[in-house]
């Protein structure tokens, strides 16, 4: 990692507490309690609404269980609180990046940057290569919005309808939609899971995204090839007509390829390894300027005025950066897509990270993470064994805790020391978390992602499971790279 990079979460800078009085079973009590409580909370009570706050509180209850174990093993309340403070402090950079991501999403919406990406993406549709086009369109939109859920609930629904009129299996279309949507979600700096994974592992956002391309690009390439072959062997009927949606976008926004200059500038800054906060801030401000120039009517409408003045321009852009904003179109399916939460929309993820850091801090203080890490290293005799253990843990949490965020948070916090002890850079852990935690959540029917996506698309998980090739292939790809020691990044001197 370059010295100028921001390191949003650096647990390696913290004092890892050893507690010789704590045995492995005592160390695992808070973990078992946390998983059991999360499973009950998600599966039996709150379902999709668990992330609105109840899961965060469950993490605090898990911390309380860990604290009780600590009291019985001679760890003081002061020690625990001190370790929690260090943990929360270590996430400062990640939290600031999340807030800036929310602001950027807001200005890129009202400026027409995101709608322009979607507008050109929809024109890729062609009946002959419909399934491959579904992947590309959903990938573009998911990268632009940072949300697989929003992508599938808007354009995904439209593609399902188009596929049905063409006589293509709903399972095939849904698999293509989800493959593209989750690829984009993984690779987008606007995605909460893409920010969460490096925060838990102790890495940096853009280093994490660059490192993910090593496994993600081959996986999506294989997926595209398979769907292209399938597409050329299918007989389709009718045509893929999205003219109504293209018309709705043109009526609501001034679409222009010049708007791509803003993301090009941000991408160039990222390539030049500009600190992420600086790149995101520049992208946000340029998005605001683009909004005033290209979409003055939208800016004044958000500012609740009729004329564009310095004051109304300031108010409209500031509201887009900070609070919920939306732009209505004549297409009901697109209206949900053209909304952004601003900085306030990121508070739920920030809340989750803080509560996870409380749980991790107490686990650190009582010596549980050190004990579990030692046990994991003794079981995982090789680097491949450590990667395999991480993948298995993420899959197990997706099945038991029924939530992709927790499949990143819990293994991420507990495995970070084990990776450092192997002199492995945090990007290895954050990439493995995403390759096995983020993308497989949609393959579990009772997971919040599986339940949501199957409900929104109207296709049972069992029907699209096989065709969601990108999602189930990703963990195998990360294990393949680990088994053959392909591009396994080691800790550098300034990281150790």
Overall description:
This protein has 496 residues and is mostly helical. The chain folds into 2 domains: 11-91 and 346-483, no CATH class; 94-343, no CATH class. Helices cover 70% and strands 1% of the residues. It has helices spanning 24-46, 54-72, 77-90, 92-110, 113-122, 130-145, 148-165, 170-187, 192-201, 205-232, 243-252, 261-271, 276-294, 296-302, 310-322, 332-335, 347-365, 368-379, 383-400, 404-421, 426-438, 448-457, 461-464, 469-483; strands spanning 325-326, 339-340. A two-stranded antiparallel ribbon has the order 1-2. Helix 6 (130-145) runs antiparallel to helix 7 and helix 14 packs across helix 15. The longest helix has 28 residues, at 205-232. It is globular, with a radius of gyration of 23 Å. The termini are close together. Mean pLDDT is 83; it is low at 1-16.
